[in-house]
Amino acid sequence: MNVPVLFEERFTDTGMRLGVATLNSPQTLNGLSLEMVDMLDAQLRAWAADSSVALVILQGAGEKAFCAGGDLHGLYRSMREHAGQGAWANTHARTFFEHEYRLDFLIHCYPKPLLCWGRGIVMGGGVGLMMGASHRVVSSDARVAMPEISIGLFPDVGASWMLNRMPGRVGLFLALTGAHLNTSDAFFAGMADFRLDPADWPRFCEALLHQPWAGGPNQGGLAPRSINDGLLRQVLLAHEPSEPLEPGPLRQHSFLINSICGEMKLETIYDELAGLTNHDDPWLARAAKTMLAGSPGSARLAYALQQHTRLRSLDDVFRIEYVAALVCTAHGDLEEGIRALLVDKDKTPRWNPATLAEASPAWVQQFFQEPWPEGVPHPLEDLGRA
């Protein structure tokens, strides 16, 4: 039986250990299931409490992807099973989103260096895992995106917080278009800190075993975390490719994107982005076409979330996104989007609402209303407050 997450500990020259977690479902591009989330959460907590573990590495099996997203087939089955029963009745969805968001928040707050190796495809739930890592390392062939508009969802896993902190208004552009970023643009958007060629990854991992990792009490006035952060950074820089990164299309078109997405009304932004479908740059044209083919309700919800969370803390953002995600399982386009893309694969979703005008500011308010009975606490009430 295939184990969905592999864990190992590698001993260093000083006797300290490196914890390595490998998402082990390459046939599904390491799509994140509830079982994988729970396994990761338990092991990361165990390593956090173990003073002999200097740092943690999170990677994906195979050469194609770190993680292409969450378990959409599982969510689809749960939506079909609980159709018409309301969002709170879907026990799988509410458990999956709660556990996934808790894991993502844990990574943001992890007490030790946590390196995420973003090789190849990093999308959706994969971005959620990588986003909070202290050392976000992308491969030279990385493809990073939050393409939820194509399945009737919205950029979640804390992405509302992340997108609001990107340069200018590129975060809104990415949410509306699901545009794919190359390695260079991952840096520009603030989604990556270091890069490595995949061929150098084994040599880099070997070099980690020979560093003087710190553990136990402070050493020379420095805490072990500070020492180990610095050591890891030195090894990453020593193995970084020497050739400079050329500006990617997001950076090249950032002035135009900021100009369009800086408009006050979503309707104006949507119309101006739609006008890029015949742009000379195929990257921009593809982004506009993806938006137009995507769910208008998702566009409205992603826009509303960025407005609603602009000044909120990360834990608050996760709580707000949890409500929206859970409501999406009972209302909106998520079930239909998954059906069209992954189940029937006809790629002809019947979005409802069918137009942005129908997905009005009044319509979107339902995604901010807690769907559980009165008196029930928010499942993420304690997040960040312990």
TrEMBL record:
Pfam families reported for this sequence: ECH_2
EC nos: 3.1.2.4
Ranges where the Enoyl-CoA hydratase/isomerase domain occurs: 19-368
GO cellular component, one term: cytosol
GO molecular function annotations of the record: 3-hydroxyisobutyryl-CoA hydrolase activity; lyase activity
InterPro entries named among the record's database cross-references: ClpP/crotonase-like_dom_sf, ECH_dom, HIBYL-CoA-H
Any one of the GO BP annotations: L-valine catabolic process
Reaction it catalyzes: 3-hydroxy-2-methylpropanoyl-CoA + H2O = 3-hydroxy-2-methylpropanoate + CoA + H(+)
Keywords for this protein: Hydrolase, Lyase
Superkingdom of the organism of origin: Bacteria
NCBIfam families xrefs: PRK05617.1
Protein name per UniProt: 3-hydroxyisobutyryl-CoA hydrolase
Organism (species): Bordetella ansorpii
Encoding gene (name): echA8_10
